[in-house]
Amino acid sequence: MRLLVETKGQFQLRVEDTGELIRHTGYTLVRPSAFISARVAIGQVEVIDRTNDEATDTEWQAYARECDGDLVVAAAAFVAAFPVGGAPAAPEAPAQKPAKPAKPARNAS
Length: 109
Prior knowledge:
Blueprint: E1 2-7, E2 13-14, E3 21-22, E4 28-30, H1 34-41, E5 45-51, H2 57-66, H3 71-81
Antiparallel strand pairs: 1-4, 1-5, 2-3
Helix pairs in contact: 2-3
């Protein structure tokens, strides 16, 4: 799992456990760690959403650019593309009616 996070001020943070840099503007995708948990607990960082492990911060930045900086739209699209628990959900197929049982053959005697 990865976390889409934002600092709660005009500062950036370097995650001690992983060396990742949380930018001072916008959202950053990072791995969960004790450092992140501590910063959330003291109000320096807010977790915006979660993604699966396949997502990267580089991909997140591309989504943000494509949405012209609209982070809400970009985050929704990004999380949908990298959902926690696996691949994006496929649209459900319409329910099919159960097959009718075959009629017994008539005896022609």
